[in-house]
Amino acid sequence: MITIRTAETIDWDQIWPIVQEVFQSGTTYAYPPETNKAEASEIWMTTPTATYVAISDGNVAGTYYIKPNQPGLGSHVCNAGYMVSATARGHGIGRSLCAHSLIEAVKLGFKAMQYNLVVVTNRYAIKLWKDMGFEIIGTLPQAFNHKEMGLVDAHIMYRLLETRAR
Fold first, then answer.
1. What's the CA gap between 49 and 80, in Å, rounded?
2. 48 phi/psi in degrees, rounded to 5
3. What is the mean pLDDT of the segment spanning 14-23?
4. What is the pLDDT of residues 142-164, one digit of tens each?
5. With 0-12 CB in 10 A as exposed, 13-18 as middle and 19+ as buried, what is 46?
6. How far is CA 11 from the centre of its chain?
7. Helix 123-131 vs helix 93-107: angle between axes, to the nearest 10 degrees?
8. Which of 6, 40, 56, 60 is the most buried (most CB within 10 A)?
């Protein structure tokens, strides 16, 4: 059983190892593998509109952020980034984080969600995002410099959010 809640400053010490591992892998996020703890905190905790954690057995098992994808006239479309600790993968936490983010995005006033750089080798994420209603709306040739495979394509994925009539 997991609980998803807004991340607090005290959570950063448990979030950082997850972020560090993912960035260092060089396989899914464009941030430099050598991103340090302070830089990562700015990226994950300070810049986003909101950051959340998935708590399992009292520990942070996953996290996501949500923020406007563009400023001003494009700010009604949000972007989200998700990470699950290596030890917690394969237990539905990523799916739970995505489902939670779709609800939170609407609460925050967003009308759509866009993923800007879904690396084609990240097949599990692509399948999950499709299952969650996202469509591939474009493919960027050789847009990601994969640490192990070199230049690979990346998808842009998009979905409108469920909003109630006002």
1. 10
2. -65, 160
3. 97
4. 999 999 999 999 999 999 998 65
5. exposed
6. 17
7. 50
8. 60
Range of the domain at 50: 2-115
Mean residue pLDDT across the chain: 95
CA distances 9 to 44, 69, 151, Å, are 11, 24, 36
**Angle subtended at Cα 99 by Cα 79 and Cα 37, rounded to the nearest 5 degrees:** 50
Residue 62 lies in a domain: yes
In a domain, 61, yes or no: yes
pLDDT-based confidence at 166, cuts 50/70/90? very low
Question: Nearest CA to 82 among 64, 69, 97?
Answer: 64
pTM recorded for the entire structure: 0.94
Q: Name residue 93's amino acid.
A: I
Nearest to 158 by CA among 100, 117, 122, 123: 117
- The CA distance from 69 to 115, in Å, is 9
Element (H, E) at 84: strand 77-84
Closest CA to 132 of 146, 118, 145: 118
Alpha helices in the chain (DSSP H): 12-25, 37-41, 93-107, 123-131
Q: Which two tokens stand for residue 145?
A: 């410099």
Give Dmax over CA atoms of the chain in angstroms. Answer: 49
